UniProtKB/TrEMBL annotation:
The keyword Hydrolase applies. Its EC number is 3.5.1.6, 3.5.1.87. It comes from Streptomyces umbrinus. GO terms for molecular function: beta-ureidopropionase activity; N-carbamoyl-L-amino-acid hydrolase activity. NCBIfam families: hydantase, PRK09290.1-4. CDD domains: M20_bAS. Signal peptide: none annotated. This is N-carbamoyl-L-amino-acid hydrolase. It comes from the Bacteria. Gene3D superfamilies: 3.30.70.360, Zn peptidases. Keywords: Hydrolase.
Length: 402
C-alpha cells in the first residue's frame, strides 16, 4: 500500500506531499482507496460530502465500528499524517481476517475529504459537513487562493456540490469511530512506547489579519511618508510569539499573502493567517485577544488599517471516556498488568475530534521519533507502524468481533 501511495502528489523538489482537496493528486488517492476497498470485497460508498467508505457487513445494520483517517495533505506534508490511519485500517482488517475473526457488527474504513483545509482554508470540511458543524451556505462561500469556490472544485472533480450537507442518517449507523494517527509530538518517544491513546484535543482556530497600507515606490518614498503594512505585520508576528510563550500556548503565522508582491514596491496589503491553540478556551481567548490588541497598536503607529476575521474555530475535545477506557483495557491486556498504555493530549485537529460531538470517537497515536509533522521529514519506524496495526486490529476485534 505504501509503495502505491508513495508517488501520489509528491513534489520532486521538496519531497513533500501536495494532496489538496479535489485536485488530481486527491483523485489519485481516492482511486487508490476505492481500489483497496474493491480488492478486499468491501462495499464502496462515496457520501454526499465526498467522504469515502468501505464496508464489511451491512452498512444499515447500525452500531458499526468505523476506523480510518484522511489522505489529503498540507503543503509539502509528510507521508504519514492521514495515510498512516487509512493504510493501518486496511492492514488491520487483513490481520483480523488472518485471525479468522468473527464480526458481530459491521465494520467500515473511511477516508474523510479535505481534512487539512490546505486549499480552502477550513480544516475537516468532509467531517464538519457530515456532522452539521459547517453549514451548506458557509461551505459554498469557501474559496481557494485562485478564487475557485468549493462547489466549483467539487464539480470539476465530478462530485455533485448540490448534495453536500449534514448527514445524520450516515452518522447514526456508527457506534464507535477510532482514528489511528502518527503522533505529532514526542511524548511516546520520551515514554518509550510505540502506541498511545488520545485524551483530548486543544481548542484551536485560524484568524485572518488584513493589514492595509499604501503601495508606493521602494526607492523614492521617504521612510516617514510610508504606510507600510509589512512593518505592522512583522511586529504582530513577534507579538504572537510573545503572547503564546507567556500563556504556555502556541501561535503561528505560517501563511502570508502580499499585494502587489513586488520587490521594489511598498505593499498595499499584507494578509497573514494566525493559527493558535491552547490547552483551554480561556487561555486561547487571552492569547488571541492579546495578539489582536498588539496588532491594532502597530497598525495605528504605521497608519495602517487592520481587519481581523476568525475563519474557523474548534472547541476543546475531550474524547469519550467509556470508549477510551475500553480501548485502554483491550490494549492493556496485551501488556504486563502494571504497564499502562499512555494517554496523551494533542494540539492537532482531527476528524475524530469533529465527530466527537455526534458519535463516540477515540484515537490511537503511533510513535514519531522526532515529533516532526506537517513536513517532509515526518517519520514513523516500520516496526512502530506494525505495532500500530496490531493495536488497531486488537481494538477493532475487541469492539466489533464476538
Ligand atoms: C491538522 O493537522 C491541524 O491540526 O492543523
Ligand atoms: Mn495534519
Ligand atoms: Mn491528520
Amino acid at each position: 500500500m505504501w509503495r502505491e501511495l508513495q508517488p501520489i502528489g509528491r513534489h520532486p523538489g521538496s519531497g513533500g506531499y501536495r494532496r489538496f482537496a479535489w485536485t488530481g493528486a486527491d483523485r489519485d488517492c481516492r482511486d487508490w482507496f476505492e481500489e483497496q476497498a474493491r480488492t478486499r470485497g468491501l462495499t464502496y460508498e462515496l457520501d454526499r460530502n465526498g467522504n469515502q467508505w468501505a464496508w464489511l457487513g451491512d452498512p444499515a445494520a447500525g452500531d458499526a465500528v468505523v476506523t480510518g483517517s484522511h489522505l489529503d495533505s498540507v503543503p509539502d506534508g509528510g507521508a504519514f499524517d492521514g495515510p498512516l490511519g487509512v493504510v493501518s485500517s486496511f492492514a488491520a482488517l487483513d490481520e483480523l481476517r488472518s485471525r479468522n475473526a468473527e464480526f458481530a457488527k459491521p465494520l467500515a474504513i473511511v477516508n474523510f475529504g479535505d481534512e487539512e483545509g490546505a486549499r480552502f482554508g477550513l480544516a475537516c470540511v468532509g467531517s464538519r459537513l457530515a456532522a452539521g458543524e459547517l453549514t451548506v451556505e458557509a461551505a459554498r462561500q469557501l474559496r481557494d487562493g485562485d478564487g475557485v469556490s468549493l462547489p466549483q472544485a467539487m464539480e470539476a472533480a465530478g462530485h455533485d456540490p448540490d448534495a453536500i450537507g449534514a448527514d445524520p442518517e450516515r452518522l447514526a449507523r456508527i457506534g464507535a469511530f477510532v482514528e489511528l494517527h502518527v503522533e505529532q509530538g514526542r511524548a511516546l518517544d520520551l515514554s518509550g512506547d510505540r502506541v498511545g491513546i488520545a485524551s483530548a484535543i486543544w481548542p484551536h482556530g485560524r484568524w485572518r489579519f488584513d493589514f492595509r497600507g499604501e503601495a508606493n515606490h521602494a526607492g523614492t518614498t521617504r521612510l516617514v511618508d510610508r504606510r507600510d503594512p509589512m512593518l505592522s505585520y512583522a511586529e504582530t508576528v513577534l507579538a504572537a510569539r510573545r503572547e503564546a510563550a507567556l500563556a504556555g500556548a502556541v501561535a503561528t503565522f505560517g501563511k502570508i499573502a502580499v499585494e502587489p508582491n513586488g520587490v521594489n514596491a511598498i505593499p498595499s496589503l499584507v494578509r497573514g493567517w494566525l493559527d493558535s491553540r491552547a490547552a483551554d478556551q480561556a487561555t486561547l481567548d487571552t492569547v488571541v485577544s492579546g495578539i489582536e490588541k498588539a496588532a491594532r497598536e502597530y497598525a495605528d503607529e504605521h497608519g495602517v488599517q487592520l481587519d481581523v476575521v476568525r475563519e474557523s474555530f474548534t472547541p476543546v475535545v475531550e474524547f469519550e471516556h467509556a470508549l477510551r477506557d475500553e480501548i485502554a483495557r483491550i490494549l492493556g491486556r496485551e501488556k504486563e498488568a502494571d504497564l499502562k498504555v499512555p494517554v496523551l493530549g494533542t494540539g492537532a485537529g482531527h476528524d475524530a475530534g469533529i465527530l466527537s460531538g455526534s458519535i463516540p470517537t477515540a484515537m490511537l497515536f503511533v510513535r514519531n521519533p522526532t515529533g516532526v509533522s506537517h513536513s517532509p521529514a515526518e517519520y514513523a519506524a516500520e516496526d512502530d507502524c506494525v505495532a500500530g496495526v496490531t493495536a488497531l486490529a486488537d481494538v477493532l476485534e475487541g469492539l466489533a468481533c464476538t
